[in-house]
């Protein structure tokens, strides 16, 4: 079954074609990486799928439902969630309050004042489960500004799971991380439930080749390769324009 279908999606900015006829499918449980040179259209594509940007042409389907024209918040309720390349956390609030706000934000009864939020046993249990899964429960009382950058990246991904997504979009989830932190992110992405499909943008080939089942390569807004890590690594055109080991 296809969790996500992107069909002939295009996006124009004036006379600039950022994306042209991009087509691919993500089956349930698959981890797909999107790679390509800077300016290839990777983040534009993620922004279109999540609803941050309208498309100029084509269709997007989530479990067979056309979501091409739906607002971002409606896509969240249908099962799409995302993290961003630059963290978008409340730095002056604690780790726990950031998580509680994320959990409350995806409920129908959003938003209540902070004291009832902290007293909500159900939300606290869900917060403990999510923060614990990402090794952040012990930091729950710390201000986000006081935890490490690697922990902030993990928190951002944990927050994106607050809505129980069926499709998770990750934009450079390991950006700025150490080798050890990067290995943790790879492991945690691999350990996400099989019911969650993941679409991630990454420049780090260690992350791509260890975490992805399949790789989509964009160049100048067009798909130039789509296959397994081994197939993409062996593609001569990809080697020439992206991996940098083709002949001159």
Model description:
The protein is of the alpha/beta class and 248 residues long. It has a single domain, classed as 3-Layer(aba) Sandwich (Rossmann fold). It contains ten helices and ten strands. It has helices at residues 42-50, 72-78, 95-105, 114-119, 121-133, 149-160, 179-190, 205-211, 229-234, 236-243, and strands at 2-13, 16-27, 31-35, 57-62, 65-66, 80-82, 167-171, 197-201, 214-219, 222-227. The strands form two sheets. Strands 6-7-8-3-9-10 form a six-stranded mixed sheet, with helices on both faces. A four-stranded antiparallel sheet has the order 2-1-4-5, covered by helices on one side. Strand 4 (57-62) and strand 5 form a beta hairpin. Helix 3 (95-105) packs across helix 5 and helix 3 packs parallel to helix 6. The chain starts with a strand and ends in a 5-residue tail after the last helix. The model has no long low-confidence stretch (mean pLDDT 88).
CATH superfamily: P-loop containing nucleotide triphosphate hydrolases
**Whole-number radius of gyration?**
18 Å
**Distance between termini?**
42 Å
The average pLDDT value, as a whole number, equals 88
Number of E-state strands: 10
How do the strands line up in the largest sheet?
A: 6-7-8-3-9-10
The domain tally reads 1
Helix content: 25-40%
CATH architecture: 3-Layer(aba) Sandwich
State which percent range the strand residues make up: 25-35%
CATH class: Alpha Beta
**If helices are DSSP runs of H or I spanning 4 or more residues, what is the number of helices?**
10
Kindly report the CATH topology. Rossmann fold
What shape does the CA trace take? globular
Question: Which residues form runs of ≥5 with pLDDT under 50?
Answer: none
Largest sheet: 6 strands, mixed
What would you call the structural class?
alpha/beta
Order of helices and strands: EEEHEEHEHHHHEHEHEEHH
